[in-house]
Amino acid sequence: MVKLIVADKVNNRLNQQKMKNKNLAIIILKALEDHYLCANELIQKLKMNYVEFEKEKFFPTLSQLQLNNLLCYNWIKGDNGNPVKYYHLTRNGYQYIHQQN
């Protein structure tokens, strides 16, 4: 009986974590709906909109969205002349966020 309760608590935590990750992914996609943004700009946009997220989950979430073909990036020369990754939605990314509404 105790093992079942512990297993349920672990499953609940895992489900909550998956939900947080999914929410962060959707928020990132929505933030990129109208703009190309580099990672720093994207983080600032999330913070300005009072979105709380774990920093260590941000870049893995971006990578997962890329693997799922929901966003991609282009290298664009920054103000200092160095190349910067600017993220934007793919066609699949646009379709995905509009299906979520």
Description:
It is a single chain. Helices cover 62% and strands 16% of the residues. By secondary structure, it is an alpha+beta fold. The protein has one domain: Winged helix-like DNA-binding domain superfamily/Winged helix DNA-binding domain (Arc Repressor Mutant, subunit A). The protein has a 3-stranded antiparallel beta sheet. The longest helix is centred in the first third of the chain and has 30 residues, at 2-31. Mean pLDDT is 81; it is low at 1-19.
CATH class: Mainly Alpha
Helix and strand string, N-terminal first? HEHHEEH
- Number of domains as seen in the coordinates: 1
Give me the Rg, rounded. Answer: 16 Å
CATH topology: Arc Repressor Mutant, subunit A
Major beta sheet, specifics? 3 strands, antiparallel
Amino- and carboxy-terminal Cα gap: 41 Å
Strand order, sheet with most strands: 1-3-2
Q: Could you name the CATH homologous superfamily?
A: Winged helix-like DNA-binding domain superfamily/Winged helix DNA-binding domain
Low-confidence blocks of residues: 1-19
Q: What is the CATH architecture term?
A: Orthogonal Bundle
Structural key phrases:
101 residues; alpha+beta; 4 helices; disordered N terminus
In short:
This protein has 101 residues and is α+β, with helices and mostly antiparallel strands.
Topology of this protein?
Elements: H1 2-31, E1 37-38, H2 39-48, H3 55-67, E2 71-77, E3 83-89, H4 91-100
Antiparallel strand pairs: 1-3, 2-3
